[in-house]
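notes to self, project folder thing:

trying the whole complex as one job this time. last attempt i did each chain seperately and stitching them together was a nightmare. two parts in total, labels are on each line so i dont mix them up again. if this works i'll redo the older ones the same way
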Amino acid sequence: MKNIGLIGYGVIGKRVADAINAQDDMNLVGVCDVISDWRIQNAVRKNYNIYAATPDAEKTMKDAGISVVGNMMDLLDKVDLIVDCTPKNIAAQNVKIYKEKGIKFIVQGGEKHETTGHSFSAENNYNSALNLDATRVVSCNTTSILRTLTALKKAGLLDYARGTLLRRATDPWESHLGGIMNTMVPERDIPSHQGPDAQSVDPDLDVITSAVKVPETLSHLHYWNVKLKKPTTKEEVLNAFKKSTRIKFIQYDQGLVSNNTIKEMYLDMGRPWGDMYEVALWEDMLKVVGDELFYAYVVDNQAIVIPETIDAIRALTGIETDAAKSIAKTNKSLGIN
Amino acid sequence: MKNIGLIGYGVIGKRVADAINAQDDMNLVGVCDVISDWRIQNAVRKNYNIYAATPDAEKTMKDAGISVVGNMMDLLDKVDLIVDCTPKNIAAQNVKIYKEKGIKFIVQGGEKHETTGHSFSAENNYNSALNLDATRVVSCNTTSILRTLTALKKAGLLDYARGTLLRRATDPWESHLGGIMNTMVPERDIPSHQGPDAQSVDPDLDVITSAVKVPETLSHLHYWNVKLKKPTTKEEVLNAFKKSTRIKFIQYDQGLVSNNTIKEMYLDMGRPWGDMYEVALWEDMLKVVGDELFYAYVVDNQAIVIPETIDAIRALTGIETDAAKSIAKTNKSLGIN
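result (full assembly):
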């Protein structure tokens, strides 16, 4: 049983905390943040031990009636590994402390690859993360790219892939803070950053991405044109994707015609926050033309990295050396099937 | 001087009427519709002769104080060619009448290719439309595809092209009638209809499209991955695109970072309705990698077909047998340079 600490109780952090709490081979020691409003009350409600990241935060938390167990250093002293889900500039400072104290740590996809020297995607490179001191779980979009292209690569089908990424403008709960409205905003450069980011996990992938922000908050939508190593059939491609346990086929003809209908289905399923840990890929839209493959899928930007983070904890701590076993265990705990 | 009639004074029709009126080799005999509200007042303001499409419309128009010159048959008797910009089901009925009366006609991209047996895009196939009885000006998205790919084809660069089309959800003036909000809605099938539609003009084009509706009303945005016949340079590609007079290079680094900023620039330029007749292609975003080409551009769904329609009139009536001369004349009249 490994002791895990969570620093940064935001949209990713609160989900990671719940996911750690759902595992039987790791113990959530506590969550650490600076917030003292309704957001941290969610952790109070769940009886998580709460640590204050700064002296100021400790005071405002206590003023708000929150029972504070200790400060960030107290938390660090009790854990085998920290999952850092803080915003970019804060994570960079925290990482120095983890390194000084010799604590294993995981950062999220907003950080640079160089921060850890290893970037993680469970189905692609779990083994290379075994017993490392640190890794970075790549971002939502990059995770989806790696899952899908790794499946094609393992089946010997992938030559190269070119993707257009339609990105949600901002996170749902933050959309009052400013998003975009009645327009689209392309990323300045081709390739957009997600293609090179996927190569930080798998340098062999021949992948080029373009990206554009659209005025919606629910999830991302990717369109892919893939050159295959040989002419093949739709069935063979579907079989390749089915080897991934985190790609879910959806049917346009069953009314799943859009990001919002997919979101509602996941809420119907009782997933917390309607979280979709899987890549939701349209089976009936998928098209094979000779040695070319075309498909589209939806990515939940808040949820897809949660199972990846749990697997990364197992890899770094070495509590499970078999990638497939960790993935299966995580999937079962989160209701992915 | 050829006499031209316009039937269907909607978002396309009102623009076509103004464009015909701006030519010195054709005469706008009148516009014909059923509407009697603020929309037809625009034609009144411009002193266009107004014809009523039905007896009921004639009555409501007269009740609204509109001076009605005659009915649709009266208009047909006076013209050499009709441009039909009515909605789909109405155009199909009208076409029967044009054929019975032996009047040349042009329909818009919403109609089927079979309606006319010829589909038109000025820079691609003006010559094949010369003195025909009818043609169809292809839709906004298809027009943009043909302009860009024809330029690459003429330069000997185009092998095949794969595009992802982000479509505006509805026309700006109709967005209160229902659009989409905070979601994206893919077209069910790959290829989406625009690729095959482009092949109705140029069957040799190897083009496959995917399309998705996004919650905005300003314009479409296309991302293209093109396989070239050989490795080349960005400069050679730009030179190919420059051969088209209806592709405008825009610079992301000059603040043109989105559909709305581009729209505002065209309004600044004093274009009616901010109309963008050109394909607005990001020069600095465009990327060549070996024998692959990546670029993105914006398409004004209401305006791009207007110059095409003027050229189609010249081709069908035979008043100009040289495509380049017609295109140049149209461009000058509309301020395209």
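what i see at first glance: The CA atoms of residues 151 and 240 of chain A lie 6 Å apart.
need to look closer tmrw
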